[in-house]
Amino acid sequence: MDHLLESKNGFSAAAMTNHAEPNSTAPATGSPTRIILADSQAIYRVGIRKILALEDDLRVVAQAENLQGLYAAVQRFPTDIVLLEGSLLAGTSNGIPDLLRKAPDVKLAVQVVESDEATTVELYRKGVRGVIPRSISPDLLVKCIRKIAHPGHAEQGNCLPDRHHRAGHQELSPQGL
């Protein structure tokens, strides 16, 4: 059962209990990966939260509907990953740097409607750890979140179509910087 603690700050805390069977594909870690969902669409946040609630190693600790709510949530709740709707960054050039200043250890994953090489490279340069299509299937979303949380886990593959993934890594290599 999920319990949401609503807030006037634009975010809500989610206290979640998990009734799913143990997930054998999850990486072996001591504690669950803590996730904050930041998305302007409530239905999308609810859907992602329900998908992640089925996984023993993933826990949604808070949700935000805007950047201000996200900033408040990362300062209040320890988290490992922020899953951020890319359109929340529209109109701001400091959204990612501000977030990473407030929570320097957080791994940031941005969900995009469409991705082009230049945007993907720019997101990685700003400190994003993963760019994920919003049209992704639930099972691949879970795999991508695990890949971002535990980059060395052998099972996981790319979260982006190959041409964007390769381009981002070529641009981010020491030779490309």
CATH level 1 name: Alpha Beta
| Overall average residue pLDDT | 78
Largest sheet: 7 strands, mixed
Number of helices: 6
- Portion of residues within helices: 25-40%
Residue share in β-strands: 15-25%
Major sheet: arrangement of strands:
1-2-4-3-5-6-7
Number of strands: 7
- CATH level-3 fold name: Rossmann fold
Outline:
With 177 residues, this protein is α/β, with parallel strands linked by helices.
What can you tell me about this protein's structure?
The chain has 177 residues and is an alpha/beta fold. It has one domain: Rossmann fold (3-Layer(aba) Sandwich), CATH 3.40.50.2300. Helices cover 36% and strands 22% of the residues. It has six helices and seven strands, in the order E-E-E-H-E-H-E-H-E-H-E-H-H. It has a seven-stranded mixed β-sheet, with helices on both faces. The protein starts with a strand and ends in a 5-residue tail after the last helix.
Labels describing this entry:
single chain, about 180 residues, alpha/beta, Rossmann fold, seven-stranded mixed β-sheet, 6 helices, 7 strands, about 35% helix, disordered N terminus
SSE layout and pairing:
Layout: E1 2-6, E2 11-16, E3 33-38, H1 42-53, E4 58-64, H2 67-76, E5 81-85, H3 95-102, E6 107-112, H4 117-126, E7 130-133, H5 138-149, H6 162-172
Parallel strand pairs: 3-4, 3-5, 5-6, 6-7
Antiparallel strand pairs: 1-2, 2-4
